[in-house]
Amino acid sequence: MSFVVYSIKGGVGKTTLSVQISQMLEYTYVTNDSHSSAHNLMPEEKGFLVSSEEYEEIPFDNNVVYDFGGFKDTRIKDIIKQSKKIIIPTLTSIVDLQATLATLKDIAEVNKNIIIVINRAKSNNKALELKEYLEEEIKKSYNDLNITIIFVRESSVLEDSLFDCEYVENKAGDNRFKRHIYRNAIEDMITLKNSLV
């Protein structure tokens, strides 16, 4: 099974989440975003760029996490259709919220197995209000959808993980001090992993 991380908006943390999921599951990472360098930072033969200049179609394969950039790409529809779950990251601003609902509209026609990740969430009421608002909007427009909405807390550990493309729990290892520092990121990634099942 494969997964897609996608939003029509850039800067919502798609690449960070995609890299974490691919490393957590030991899957291959594939992106269509030629502005991203994450595919070059992945371990050998584990990261690929499928630019529109080189690939007329994006090949579908199992055990892949697809990171689809914040732009329209007609090639992604078949991949979205065949993937087990679609992860839509969002931030807490109204612009990101509108982009999330627009992304949801595109995806729901093709694949109803959707997870929304409220990314870089702070421990405050704004994230909870956003979740409630999203649930109301989804219920109004997509009565047949049962979408999981989870939080991934703001974490420099997750952002820094892009530099070495290592799963945060592996990065912490058995070091008790590191595990304490990384605990929020590890907990959030475990929650995300459980929602992928």
Radius of gyration (Å): 16 Å
Runs in which pLDDT lies below 50 for 5 or more consecutive residues are none
Number of strands: 7
The end-to-end distance, rounded to whole angstroms, is 10 Å
The coarse silhouette is: globular
> What order do the strands of the largest sheet run in, or round the barrel if closed?
3-2-4-1-5-6-7
Count of helical regions: 9
Question: Pairing-aware structural class of the strands and helices?
Answer: alpha/beta
Could you state the order of secondary-structure elements as H and E? EHEHEEHEHEHEHHHH
User: Describe the biggest sheet?
Assistant: 7 strands, parallel
Strand content: 15-25%
Indicate the mean pLDDT.
92
Helix content estimate: 40-55%
Layout of SSEs?
Elements: E1 3-6, H1 14-25, E2 28-31, H2 38-41, E3 47-49, E4 64-68, H3 77-82, E5 85-90, H4 94-108, E6 114-121, H5 125-141, E7 148-153, H6 156-164, H7 168-172, H8 176-181, H9 183-196
Parallel strand pairs: 1-4, 1-5, 2-3, 2-4, 5-6, 6-7
Helix pairs in contact: 1-6
